[in-house]
Write a structure and sequence with these properties.
The protein is an all-alpha fold. The protein has 4 helices and no strands. Helix content is 66%, strand content 0%.
Length: 89
C-alpha cells in the first residue's frame, strides 16, 4: 500500500503460490514440498518482524516432501500409491 512491491519479494510470493497450487493438486509432491521448505526459509530471512510462521511453513513443507503424495493426489493416480508394510518376523 505504501509503494510498489520489490521485485524479489513479488517473485517469492509468485513462486510460493505456484508451489502451493502444486501441493493442493498433489502433483510432484516431494519436489513441491522441498521447494516450499526452501521458499519458506527465504521468506523467514526477508520477513524480519515475525519469521516463525515462515519457519513453521518450511517445516511443514519438509514433512510433506518426506511423506510423499496422499491417496487422492494426482501423483497417486499417475504413479501408484506406495504402502509401507512392516511384517512380523
Amino acid at each position: 500500500m505504501r509503494g510498489a512491491p520489490q521485485l524479489g519479494s513479488a517473485s517469492l510470493h509468485i513462486l510460493t503460490i505456484g508451489v502451493g497450487l502444486l501441493l493442493l493438486v498433489g502433483l510432484w509432491t516431494p519436489i513441491a514440498g522441498t521447494m516450499l521448505a526452501i521458499l519458506a526459509l527465504l521468506h523467514a530471512a526477508f520477513h524480519l518482524t515475525n519469521p516463525w510462521t515462515c519457519v513453521l511453513m518450511g517445516i511443514l513443507g519438509a514433512a510433506l516432501a518426506l511423506l510423499g503424495p496422499g491417496a487422492w493426489s494426482v501423483d497417486a493416480r499417475l504413479f501408484g500409491w506406495k504402502r509401507v508394510r512392516i511384517s512380523d518376523r
